[in-house]
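Task: fold both queries, return tokens.
Query 1:
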Amino acid sequence: MADIAPLVSIVIPARNHARYLPQAVRSALGQDYPRVELIVLDDGSTDNTREVLARLPGAFRWESHGHMGQAQTQNKGWQMARGEILAYLSADDTLASGAVAAAVSAFAATPEAVATYCDFELIDPASRVIRTVRAPAFDYSRLAAELECAPGPGAFFRRAAWERAGGWNPVLRQMPDYDFWLRLGLQGPFVHIPRVLAQFRVHAASQTFSRATEVLADEPQRIIGEFFARADLPDDIRVLHPRALAKANLVSAQLHFRAGRWRRAFQRLRAARAAGSGHIGATGSFRLAVNALFNRAGHRALWTLRDLFS
């Protein structure tokens, strides 16, 4: 039975998202796949997360511990999990009912694959669809050189590959998922499932839209520096270091722009152009600045207009 339907373990780290948590839990429990283990870990929430979890129906495990961050919370959950296939779901995101079954089928069809990922929808705080994100086909070179993190919500990975790659780095707070996918990608290929099987919620309290501190905004350079210092990198990946460093500085500049640190942002832009040897041009820098300045404001304006006319 285990060979036919491997156990899939989903970990939900919860930190002050009591408003959205029931939707996440219901989406994980509502899978049309027979063997799903759900573990929800309350990471020291100061809202009513524990009360919400205590009231939610369904067969799942949950615990509450003192605040230790998303990375350590997820690592704890995966260590508790018994599944052959692992996943995480943010407490403010959701899965489509066929997400697990699609991932298991993709793994069965591609035995060498270590991860699967899908297309997904961006939704607003009221769960209204903003747009659909069509994820690109997997390209490890682009993952390393362009910081193109194709996996989003609805990604699954094999336990054996996770054990070899290691879990999330608890030191990282801004881009720990990217660092993890970089390391996991060294273990084997990822499979893109071209179906919308998850939803990613955009709201003011999400990490994606928060104002990064100076340390967090410089995290991309740290990740790239540590990754390219590895002794086990293939030669065709190692030569991508200049491009990766240029893009890391560009992403860092965007985070500094969003936080209003203009001088630091322009320093990172200059570093990107210096490291990129022509890969980073004025057009790319301009687009990044526009996105940093108007992306958050645009989403907030959209939420406000929808609320007014709903």
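Query 1 returned. Query 2:
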Amino acid sequence: MSIIERKFYNRSTLIVARELLGCKLVRNIDGEIIQGIIIETEAYTQEDPACHAFKGKTLRASTLFKKPGISYVYFIYGMYYCFNVVTEPEGRAGAVLIRALQPFGKLNNTNGPGKLCREMKITKELNEADLTRMDSGLWIEKGESLAENNVIVTSRIGIKLAVDYPWRFYIKNNPHVSRK
């Protein structure tokens, strides 16, 4: 086990989004470990109209401007949580939405951002959790590098603005991808 260090996240959001593929998302709930491999991500930056930080440092978006390597968890459609990893240097907003996991163990239905949060019990209480520390209860461990031909780069889904940005990444032929 090797937890990813903060410097990994202190880079371009697009690079981090691609390099998170194959890494392991781990959750500790009262000593029970739940985990899955990150197989699908989407990138969002402050210049992006689909990003919560596009209009600046609002109350909702303030977490996106904080130190890299923390979580950004928000509620959507009045029923789902979404889990993001904050990227870029502090003061510059960026985040990677974790869209899908390849489950193992007790995890089952993790082929979508709301589903993986439900399965891993990620809620607003984990907003700003330090993903570089095990004591936060939520962290990311290093994975194996993927060859370029095993990564699909395409436009994002489930949004209304900037849908043409090729900022969605997923592992080719993985059956747990949210939608193709």
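Both queries returned. Flag for query 2: DSSP finds three helices and eight strands in the chain.
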